[in-house]
Design a protein that fits this description.
There is one protein chain. By secondary structure, the protein is of the alpha+beta class. It has 2 domains: about 80 residues, Beta Barrel (OB fold (Dihydrolipoamide Acetyltransferase, E2P)), CATH 2.40.50; about 180 residues, Trna Endonuclease, Chain: A, domain 1. The strands form 3 sheets. It has a 7-stranded mixed sheet, with helices on both faces. Strands 2-3-4-6-5 form a 5-stranded mixed barrel. The chain has a 3-stranded mixed sheet with strand order 11-12-14. Helix 3 runs parallel beside helix 4. The chain starts with a strand and ends in a 5-residue tail after the last strand.
């Protein structure tokens, strides 16, 4: 068992309001912990709905509790007599990848050296730069992937299908997920820019390895793909992949003791 990350002092609670009734920011939620209501930090806008009202979540105490007493890290999922945890904090994904790089857990990224955090190229800041075992410069961007379902499709279309016969551990993880004003926009302009600039860097110098690592923090997934809902992102990822940008989806999972365990790389459905 490869434990890559540990969250100490996990506290379970139920989201009562998001956004908070006291602070209307979508990054703040009211959570009930042992019958007391606390304002807590919700780490990202969407989180696949996993930190919305009514959801059970796992938190740690906030380092700076002036406004929020806790930070949400994990969401509890109940499905077909199965209970599992989903990692929804994007910063956890970066920390997980950092530890995986240091320990050589990720296939094709064993024995990397000179790992540095948050380096700028072109008009973007990327999560890691390092040297691979062949001494090639390697630029890495990390994306957290909280969302998965039996098929990746628009929510209205999904409601027409019956997935009750499907094994709970055969889902498709997809990225991105979230809100946008119109269907013609991308969900995450920043994520789209990262793809385009990784492709440009690869085109400028074919000896550089440009990599997108998608971190799936849940056990119920067998494959990853770019979301069919965001056509702009999906086409950009496909184009970058054709032009040499590497796509590496990795799967980790969490237990109730706050341990994050590395499982494996999973297939990328092109």
């Amino acid at each position: 068992m490869k434990v890559v990350y540990q969250l100490d002092g996990l506290i379970r609670g139920k989201v009562i309001h998001r956004p908070s009734k006291q602070c209307r920011s979508p990054y703040v939620a009211d959570v009930s912990i042992n019958d007391h209501i606390y304002m807590v930090h919700a780490p990202s806008l969407g989180c696949g709905g996993y930190s919305d009202t009514g959801q059970w979540v796992y938190m740690t105490k906030h380092d700076n509790p002036k406004k929020c007493s806790h930070v949400i890290h994990l969401a509890e999922r109940h499905e077909k007599n199965t209970i599992y945890l989903v990692g929804i904090h994007p910063k956890s994904a970066e920390q997980i990848v950092h530890i995986c790089l240091q320990n050589g857990f990720i296939y094709s990224l064993e024995n990397v050296t000179n790992i540095e955090r948050e380096k700028c190229f072109l008009n973007s800041r990327f999560d890691f730069i390092c040297r691979d075992k062949n001494n090639k410069m390697t630029i890495i961007e990390v994306k957290n992937v909280p969302c998965a379902d039996y098929e990746d499709m628009p929510s209205k279309e999904r409601k027409k299908h019956d997935f009750s016969h499907r094994d709970v551990n055969t889902k498709v993880a997809y990225f991105p997920d979230g809100y946008r004003k119109t269907k013609n926009e991308t969900i995450s302009p920043r994520a789209l820019k990262h793809i385009q600039e990784l492709e440009e860097l690869k085109n400028q110098n074919s000896d550089i390895r440009c990599i997108l690592i998608f971190v799936i923090q849940r056990i119920d997934v067998k494959i990853f793909q770019a979301s069919v809902v965001d056509i702009l992102y999906r086409k950009a990822l496909q184009k970058a992949f054709k032009n040499g940008v590497e796509i590496i989806p990795i799967q980790v999972y969490w237990n109730n003791e706050g341990q994050c365990i590395y499982n494996k790389t999973i297939p990328f459905r092109y």
